[in-house]
Amino acid sequence: ISQSNARTVALRDVKRNLTGFYKCEVSADAPLFHTEIKSGLMIVVDIPEGDPTLFVEKVKYALGDKIRANCSSRASYPAANLTWFVNGQQ
Q: If we measure between CA atoms, which residue out of 75, 74, 73, 77 comes closest to residue 16?
């Protein structure tokens, strides 16, 4: 916050707990004392580090076999979406 000023807020090394609604309040001086408030949601995202991992039980399968595979991603916030593709088709 040390690099913030009347118009801009600067936050360093943000963590997930800073996710939330932020408000800006502007007040007029006397005699009106009118106040305007605007708020907006800021979400601190934490993307997964590195590529997803894919585990397949075998490399070769016979016709009629059941394929078992696992795709996983490291921790992220919000949780990453994992989508399967076979030969480029979802």
A: 77
